[in-house]
Amino acid sequence: MSHPMKREPYGLHRLPLALCMALALSSASLWSTAARAASNDNNVEWAGLFHDQGPVYDSAPEPTASTPVTLTFRTYKGDITSANIKYYDSADGQYHWVAMQWVANDATGTYDLWQGTIPASSSEKYYRFQINDGTATAWYNAAGITSSEPSSGDFFIIPGFKTPAWMKNGVIYQVFPDRFYNGDTSNDVTNGEYTYAGCATEQHAWGTAVTSNVSGCNSAVFFGGDLAGVDQKLSYIKGTLGADIVYLNPIFSSPTNHKYDTQNYYTVDPAFGSNTTLQQLIGDIHSASNGPAGYVILDGVFNHSGDSNCWFGAQTYDSLTCSQPGAYQSQSSPYYSYYTFQTWPSSYSTFFGITSMPKLDYGASGSATRNQIYGNAGSVVQTYLAQPYGIDGWRLDAAQYLDAGGNNGSDTTNHQIMQELRTAVKSVNSNAEIVGEYWGDASSWLDDGAEWDSAMNYNGFTQPASEWICGVDESGNSASLTPSQLDSWLLGTRADLPIDVQQTMTNFLGSHDTERFATRCGADIWKTYLGLIFQMTYVGTPTIYYGDEYGMQGGADPDNRRTFDWTQATTSNAAVALTQQLIRIRNEYPALRTGSFMTLVTDDTNDIYAFARFDKSNRLAVVLNGTSNTETVTVPVYEESMTNGSQVTDLITGTKYTVSNGNVTVSVEGHYGAILAQ
C-alpha cells in the first residue's frame, strides 16, 4: 500500500465508474426501494454511504493537539454489520484502527449513524473508512467509494492548522485599480507624461477602448482609477453588494497600468494616490460604519520586480533617485545577489522571457532577498501587515515560481521559501490570509498547513463552472461538461485538500487573467445569473472580479480589464440585485460557508445539478438548471435528512414547498437556480 501522503491528482478519468454511478443515483425510487431493501445480505449499499468533515460528521474540523476527533459515518438503516476507521499517523508511520459504534438513526429513519474517535495528538493523520456487510466490504474516503482499499485520497487531520475564519465566512471583491473608479483626477496619468520601454503614456476617457493607439503599448493606457476611487465606492462594494473582503491588484509604484513590474514595493504608485491614501482606504474597509467590517488583501508580486526598480536599475521613466547602483548597473551593487545573470548585464533570468520583469533570486535561507521580501520586520510582507497599514492578507502572484538561481520553482527551494514566508506572515498577524496563484492542482502547497492557506481556485471551480455553464474553458477554448462530469471533477479537487482549505479557496467566475465570464457565455445574462448562484453556494470563498456581478464583457487581456460601468451599479440591474440577494443569503446561513456538501442530482439528460449544504442548524438544497428551458426537478432531500411534511422555502423566489415521499419537486427557470432552505 502506498503512503497516503502521496496524494494523486484527480481528474474525470481517475474516479471509478461505480462511484460516478453511485453519485448519480438520486431519484425517488432510490429512497422508496433501496432504503427498505437494506439488510445484512453481504452487500454494502453504496448509495447510503456518506461522510465529510462538515460539523454534522466531524466534531473538530480544525483540532488542536489536545482535541480528539469524533467522526460520524452514515449508512442505510440496518445495512451493515460493522464499520471501522483506518488512519495513518505521521508520528509513527503506522496505520491504526478504530472500531465504530452505532449511535442513532437520522431524523427520517432512513439512515444509521456510526461513530468512532481518533485520539488527540499533534501529528498529521489521514483517514478512510472500512464498511462491512458480512463478507462484503466497501471503502470510503474523500475521493469516494471503492470496493478495494484506496491508496490515496484520504481525509486530512492537521492539528494546529487553522485558516482564517473571516476568509471562510467572507465574500471577496477584486479591484483592478486603474479601471474601477477615478476618485482623484489630480493624479491622473496624462498623454505623454512619460515614456517607458518605448511607449508613451496615453490617457483614455472612461468607457473607451483599453487598447493602445500604438501597437504593443497596451500597458501604457491609463484611465485614472485610483485608491481614492475604491474608497469612495465602498458604499457600493460593502453596502450595496455586501462583500466584505477587498482584494486589490498591484498598487505599488510601477510604469505600467497593471503594476506587475514593481518599481518600489514601499511606495504606492502616484497615479493611485499615496501611502496615506492606502492607510485611509484600509481603515475605511476595516470600519463597520459603511457596511460590514471588512478585510484587505494586497497583491504581492514577489517572483520578479520591474527593471526600473532601484534594485535592478535597467530603465528609468521618472525622477526616482536611487541611493545605490542597481544590479544591472554594477556587479558591486548591494542588490546584485537579488537577480541571476547568465552574462552580465545583458542576459538575466526573467519572468517567462519578459525583460522588463527580471526574476528575483531568493538564494539560500537567510539571503538578502528573502530578508528584503519577507524575512525582517522591515520587509515588504511584514511592513504592510503591521501598523500603520494592517492589511489582512497577501495574494501571491506567480507563487509557484519563486526560487533561487533563476530557476522557475524547483520544488525543494520553492516550498522552503513558502514555509518561511508563512512563518513571517503569521508572526505579524496569526489571522492573516495567504492566497497563492496557481492554475492547476495546488495541493502541494496546501496539504500540510505549512505554506499557503488557500489558492485561486481555477482548477476546482473556475474551469469546471465555465465548461459546464458556458461550454468553454476559462480561456474561451471549446470544452463542455455534463452534470455528472462536473460533479466528478468537483469531488476530485475537493479531495485533494484539507476541509478548511476547501472553505477558503477563492471561487471566481473570471479574473484579470481570463476572458470575462459573460463573454465566454456568449453575453447571455441568464448564464451569469446561474454562475452567480453556483459561486455563492459552493464550497469556498466567492470572489467577484469587478463588473462580473453585472455581466461585464471582455476578451483576453487587456480587454478583460475594461472600465467599470457605473450606470450598472444599482439594484435596478437584475444581476446586481441577485448578487446582493445571494450574498445576504450566504451571510444568513453558515451552512453555505462551512457546512457539508452532498451531491443530490446529476441529471445529464436535462442538464440539472443539485447539491445539499447543511449543518446542525439548517439544511439547504441548491438546484441549478443548465438548460435554457424551465425544468421541473425532483430533489431527494431525504438524503440530507429533511423529513416528510416539513416545509422548505426557495430563498431566491420565496416559494414554499412541502417534503413528500422524501422529495421536493420544484420548477426552475432556464440558466437559473433555487436555494431551498429548511
UniProtKB/TrEMBL annotation:
Transmembrane segments: none annotated. The keyword Signal applies. CDD domains: AmyAc_CMD, E_set_CDase_PDE_N. Residues 174-586 form the Glycosyl hydrolase family 13 catalytic domain. It comes from the Bacteria. Residues 1-37 form the signal peptide. SMART domains: Aamy (SM00642). InterPro entries: Cyclo-malto-dextrinase_C, GH, GH13_cat_dom, Glyco_hydro_13_lg-like_dom, Glyco_hydro_b, Ig-like_fold, Ig_E-set. GO terms for molecular function: hydrolase activity. Keywords: Glycosidase, Hydrolase, Signal. This is Glycoside hydrolase family 13 protein.
